[in-house]
Each structure stands twice: as structure tokens, then as C-alpha cells.
Task: inverse folding
């Protein structure tokens, strides 16, 4: 009950730092799959080890409400994760974040999401709240309809996957719908958008051509800017095939070696062109490269 009370508070005390990324991918004419990833600095959870704890149980609570409708709750979950705190695990936690992911299906609209995490061993609580919008891509006729863009520096085997809110049956169903899962590996979205030059940058998005009799080829590329100066651009990639669904979904995947670029701040831009239909789509976000 303490968790529910904390989630309902307008301005609860936050002792754990929480960052979140929310993405969306169209499943059919009505529904969108919405994967979320949460990161908590591991050093904040490793504090339990200092008190002699052998494990810590983290409770997670999530609630999604429809802002434009009747403010009703449309998704909620409660989960807990048991982290064994050996000396080696605690030392590893001190250097990297704990990641937690889940996903659910929503209709187009505007939503608020509230997320709460509680370390049962130390009693420390963290909360996160934001508003997000799922667009109705069926109404997009001026640009190439695309999903959100995922930037990642990490792929993990499903058997080693980060903590997941779903039970076994639900997880299998979710992974079947999750476009971030491919060939037994899951792409982990970067919440901080800080990437190491020593690892590849993975870029993933989907384009849609619903209602067409034949799929039109798309051209896509990724560019890096510093100010107005373009410092790097991938070779244009032509995509000619689509999934056999009503949306004619076209997955766009890039794997980009970052070693030629010096550390620093960049704007990463993804460009998708439909030369036949004379349409385009652009997406841009700041990123940071570190050694």
C-alpha cells in the first residue's frame, strides 16, 4: 500500500534517480506497441550492500492514464526484482545502471505515465512522471510515416535480458510483438544517449506504406552534425522490401562504427526519402560520444 500511496502523491520525495525512454511502433491501423526502458544508477542500489545485505528487492509500479479521454488508467503493472548482492555484483552495480524494461499496446492519443521504484532493503524511493503522445500515422499524408527512432549501443541475448515485468507467457507474447527483438537478441534503447566510440551505434526505426498496391523503395541515411557542419554521413541505404502486413512495414536498421569521430556533442539526424512519392521524413536528437 505504501507504493500506491507514494505514486499518488503530487510531489513525492525522490531518493533514487530514474531516467526513462518511451518509443512507439505501429502494429496495425489501430494499435501501437510501446516499449519503455528505465535506468536507475546501480551505485544507488549498491548502498544496501554497505549495510550487510545479501540481496535487495526492488518494487516497480507503473500507471498510464489517457489525458485526452476521461483520465482513466489504461495500463498498470506491479513487479519486483530480486538482485543478489555478492561483493562482485555490488562492485559491478557501482559502475553501471540497472535497466528495467516492459512494453504494452496503446491507441493513438496523449498519455501520462507515472513510474515508481522502491529499494526494499534501504527504503529509498524514486519516481518519474512524464507526458507522451502516440501519433495517428494513418493521417500522415505529407511525410513518410515513421515510428519513433531508437538509438542503442547495446544488444543482449534474450536469455540474459534485463529485468522484465512480464511473466513467461506474457513475455513470449510481448517479444513476438516487440520490433526491438530480432534473432534472439533485444536492442536496448539508450536513455542517456551517451555512446562509447569503442562500440557501434545501432539505429532502428520503421517506415509504413499502408494502402499502396506495391511497395515503393525508400532511401535512408544517418548524419552527424556539429552546429551547422555535417561531420559524418552513412552511405544511403535502399530498402525495397516490406513485411507482409497491411501496413507494409519497412524496418530500417543501421550499425555505425563511431571510432572515426572525435568525442563530443553531436546532433544525430535520420533521413528517410520516398523518391517516387516525393515525400520525406526527418528525425533529430542530440547525442554525446565518449572515448
Result:
Amino acid at each position: 500500500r505504501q507504493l500506491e500511496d507514494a505514486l499518488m502523491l503530487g510531489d513525492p520525495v525522490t531518493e533514487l534517480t530514474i531516467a526513462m525512454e518511451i518509443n512507439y511502433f505501429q502494429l496495425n491501423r489501430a494499435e501501437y506497441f510501446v516499449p519503455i526502458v528505465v535506468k536507475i544508477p546501480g551505485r544507488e542500489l549498491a548502498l544496501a550492500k554497505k549495510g550487510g545485505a545479501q540481496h535487495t528487492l526492488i518494487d516497480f509500479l507503473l500507471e498510464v492514464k489517457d489525458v485526452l479521454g476521461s483520465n482513466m488508467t489504461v495500463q498498470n503493472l506491479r513487479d519486483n526484482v530480486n538482485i543478489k548482492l555478492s561483493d562482485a555484483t555490488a562492485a559491478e552495480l557501482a559502475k553501471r545502471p540497472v535497466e528495467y524494461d516492459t512494453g504494452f499496446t496503446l491507441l493513438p492519443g496523449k498519455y501520462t505515465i507515472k513510474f515508481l521504484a522502491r529499494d526494499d532493503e534501504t527504503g529509498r524511493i524514486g519516481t518519474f512522471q512524464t507526458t507522451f503522445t502516440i501519433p495517428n500515422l494513418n493521417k500522415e499524408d505529407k511525410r513518410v510515416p515513421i515510428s519513433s527512432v531508437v538509438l542503442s549501443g547495446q544488444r543482449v541475448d534474450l536469455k540474459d535480458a534485463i529485468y522484465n515485468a512480464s511473466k513467461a507467457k506474457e513475455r513470449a507474447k510481448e517479444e513476438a510483438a516487440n520490433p526491438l527483438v530480432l534473432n534472439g537478441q533485444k536492442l536496448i534503447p539508450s536513455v542517456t544517449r551517451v555512446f562509447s566510440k569503442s562500440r557501434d551505434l545501432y539505429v532502428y526505426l520503421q517506415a509504413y506504406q499502408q494502402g499502396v498496391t506495391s511497395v515503393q523503395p525508400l532511401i535512408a541515411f544517418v548524419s552527424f552534425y556539429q552546429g551547422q557542419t555535417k561531420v559524418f554521413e552513412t552511405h544511403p541505404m535502399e530498402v525495397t522490401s516490406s513485411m507482409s502486413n497491411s501496413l507494409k512495414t519497412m524496418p530500417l536498421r543501421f550499425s555505425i562504427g563511431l571510432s572515426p569521430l572525435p568525442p563530443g556533442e553531436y546532433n544525430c539526424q535520420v533521413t528517410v526519402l520516398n523518391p517516387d512519392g516525393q515525400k520525406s521524413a526527418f528525425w533529430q536528437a542530440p547525442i554525446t560520444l565518449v572515448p
Notes: The first strand starts at residue 19 and ends at 22.
